[in-house]
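sorry for the late reply, my laptop died twice this morning and i had to redo everyting from scratch. anyway the thing you sent over, i finally got around to it. pasting the sequence first so we're on the same page, its 82 residues, then the predicted structure underneath. double check i copied it right bc i was rushing
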Amino acid sequence: MIFDSGAFFRASGTYLIGLILGDDIAATEPAADGLALLLRLVKQGVLKPSIGIEAPWTEVATVARQLVDRCFSGKAILHLPR
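ok and here's the structure:
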């Protein structure tokens, strides 16, 4: 993407954040380990997530649209059948 950086930075309240994930991501722990840690912290009451909506997984399209449209704040929980 090419843009006029001078005009961008002269505008009030603008900022630019960059993120590059190369080989660094392979050197980290598996996602399952991080998710297990988060779950333990929630179970212990250390983390208290804000849950904005709960729905069956079959409503994923509706919930995704509501999330994109910012119809609720917090996390979306989709329940899977057992």
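Strands lie at 51-56, 75-79.
thats about all i looked at so far, will dig more tmrw
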